[in-house]
Every structure is written in structure tokens, then in C-alpha cells.
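Query structure, 341 C-alpha cells:
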């Protein structure tokens, strides 16, 4: 797919490891992908595949004992019309410049709003604080802007909600408040990490519609992390599929759904529940054959080989496949595609 939009973030050979007493977990082990201005990129995979750690690496908030040990995250920003490129991996996590980017230029919403909303400050104080900090506005102007932002995200009675605490709001309202906080400074990239997983289906649909509308209005890019391919189909233009810390396939969303080449992507697609399936079948089908490997002892060769229906013994269990671009914008890491470049 030809996309002329400017690059916003380039993740290059990113490696973020966790050094634990039991051994080293290579949570992200050589991830490569780009995000363009204004696009929605889906990042999918099962729990523990490295999606969230990749997001936290971009924001430079990897919790200890995790550390980005190699690679680059190039962030292309515009400051008063001038272009600037920063490698976020080289910036001090708590330095002024990184804190100025985090929250203002690159913002994040999480699955559980209570992890980012303070229980002891009103919603208005928290949004107003973010606005004052990043935009240098006086308290009254910041409060007005906070009310406008709450109204933008469809919060009922924003003038009243602004003086409420997070525990006084429903799950959907808390999620709206967190999105309002993330959007209050008009970020160029919003990282959304499973933001609707904890919500009921109706509220989830409302939040997804809201995010699409806000993206149209504000023109920001969204990196949407999820294990739910139904959400990917609704929300994203391009998709990165991760397995055990590596990107195994990436392509535009139609190619992923209609012409996926990696056996893992195909298995994920087969695990989507279909209309008419009984609920107990859905739970059974929403998983892929075999277990996710022990992160301390990844299999040799292709990490997916113990679960792969197309495994080539003697090759897949010995040699790690490399990423190959089999068509413009369609990249696959699998021996089956090795000669299709
Ligand atoms: Fe399956 Fe081999 Fe491809 Fe891995 S490299 S996904 S084991 S066919």
C-alpha cells in the first residue's frame, strides 16, 4: 500500500529485556515498524507477546527491572514549523524533555483507568494539571479547557463531572475521563492499550466510535494495542502482529484479514468467534493450539514452531526466520515466505 503520510515514529530493532533472578525475559526482541502521522496502527498478539512493553518503551516508562537494551525509537516532531528527530531510547526517562513529550505529544490510555486517574484528586484537577503543565495556562483557562475536553469526549454534564472523583464515575465515564486527559494537550500520537477490554459491549462500541471521531477531528495517529481482531477490523488501517517479542507479520488491515501469510496470524484469525456460535464455544475457540512458550526458555529457531501446523522439522526448530517483504508493505517472518521477496 502506498502511503505518503509523513513518518511520525520509527521503531528500529527495538530490544527491551527484563532482568530477573529467574533469568532474562526478552519481552521485545527486535521489533521493527513505523507509525505515520494521522494513521491508526493496530498491534495484536496474545498476552505476553510484547505489545504493551513496546508501547511503554516508546513512552520511556518501562518498569524496573526492565530496560531497553538496543535499537532506536525515532520520533519526528515539529516545533514551531521546524522538524526535529529524537531517539526516545536515548532520553532520560524523567528528564524535562521526555516529560514534556510524554502526555503532551505522545499520550497513552490504559485498559484500567484507575491506574492513571488519581483517587484523591478531582477529574478537573487532573485534566487541568496536565493542561497547565504542558501549555502553561492559568487555572481558570485550564479549567474551561478541561470542561471543553470532557464535553468533546461525550462526558455527560461536564460542568458537574469536573468536580467529581474517579470512584464516583462508571467504568465508561472513567474511560472517557482518561481519554479526555490524554487528549487535553492534542498529542500527535495516542497509544491505546486495550482501552475497552474491561467495558461492556455497548460502552465499548461507544468508546470505539468516540476514538474514531476524535481521530478525524484532531488528526492524531493512534497505536491501538489489542488481542481482539474484531476491534482491529473496526479501528485500524495497518496491523503489526507480534509473537514472543518479535513482529511476525505486518500489512494493511485488508491484507491481514484476507491474505495473511504467517501461520500465527492465520491461527489468530481462526480464533475469532463467529456470529451464531454458542457462548461456551466462543471461549473454547478464542485460543490457539498449544501453550505460549516459557519466556525464560524460548524454543530454538522459530519461537512459534511447537504450535505451528506448517512446521518444517529440521529447519523451523533450528533456524530463526528473518523478516521478508513479500509485497509492498507486507512483511512476514516465516521460512515459508523466505523465497518470496
Ligand atoms: Fe511455522 Fe516454520 Fe513459519 Fe515458524 S517458520 S511459523 S514454524 S512454518
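Result returned for the query:
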Amino acid at each position: 500500500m502506498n502511503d505518503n503520510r509523513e513518518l511520525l515514529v520509527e521503531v528500529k530493532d527495538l530490544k527491551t529485556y527484563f532482568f530477573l533472578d529467574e533469568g532474562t525475559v526478552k519481552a521485545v526482541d527486535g521489533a521493527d515498524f513505523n507509525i505515520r502521522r494521522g494513521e491508526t496502527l493496530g498491534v495484536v498478539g496474545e498476552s505476553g507477546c510484547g505489545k504493551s512493553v513496546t508501547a511503554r518503551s516508546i513512552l520511556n516508562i518501562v518498569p524496573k527491572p526492565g530496560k531497553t537494551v538496543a535499537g532506536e525509537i525515532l520520533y519526528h516532531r515539529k516545533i514551531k514549523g521546524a522538524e526535529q528527530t529524537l531517539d526516545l531510547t536515548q532520553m532520560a526517562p524523567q528528564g524535562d524533555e521526555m516529560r514534556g513529550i510524554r502526555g503532551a505529544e505522545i499520550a497513552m490510555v490504559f485498559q484500567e483507568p484507575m491506574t492513571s486517574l488519581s483517587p484523591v484528586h478531582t477529574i478537573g484537577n487532573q485534566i487541568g494539571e496536565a493542561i497547565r503543565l504542558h501549555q502553561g495556562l492559568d487555572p481558570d483557562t485550564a479549567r474551561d479547557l478541561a470542561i471543553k475536553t470532557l464535553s468533546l469526549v461525550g462526558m455527560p454534564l461536564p460542568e458537574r463531572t469536573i468536580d467529581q472523583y474517579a470512584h464516583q464515575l462508571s467504568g465508561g465515564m472513567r474511560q472517557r475521563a482518561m481519554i479526555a486527559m490524554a487528549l487535553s494537550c492534542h498529542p500527535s500520537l495516542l497509544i491505546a492499550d486495550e482501552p475497552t477490554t474491561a467495558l461492556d459491549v455497548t460502552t465499548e462500541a461507544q468508546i470505539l466510535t468516540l476514538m474514531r471521531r476524535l481521530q478525524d477531528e484532531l488528526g492524531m495517529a493512534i497505536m491501538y494495542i489489542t488481542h481482539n481482531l474484531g476491534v482491529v477490523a473496526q479501528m485500524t488501517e495497518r496491523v503489526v502482529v507480534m509473537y514472543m517479542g518479535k513482529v511476525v507479520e505486518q500489512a494493511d488491515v485488508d491484507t491481514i484479514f484476507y491474505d495473511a501469510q504467517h501461520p500465527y496470524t492465520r491461527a489468530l484469525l481462526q480464533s475469532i468467534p463467529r456470529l451464531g456460535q454458542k457462548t461456551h464455544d466462543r471461549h473454547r475457540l478464542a485460543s490457539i493450539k498449544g501453550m505460549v512458550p516459557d519466556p525464560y526458555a524460548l524454543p530454538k529457531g522459530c519461537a512459534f514452531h511447537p504450535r505451528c501446523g506448517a512446521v518444517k522439522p529440521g529447519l523451523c526448530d533450528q533456524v530463526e526466520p528473518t523478516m521478508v517483504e513479500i509485497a509492498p508493505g507486507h512483511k512476514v517472518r516465516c521460512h515459508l515466505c523466505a523465497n518470496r521477496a
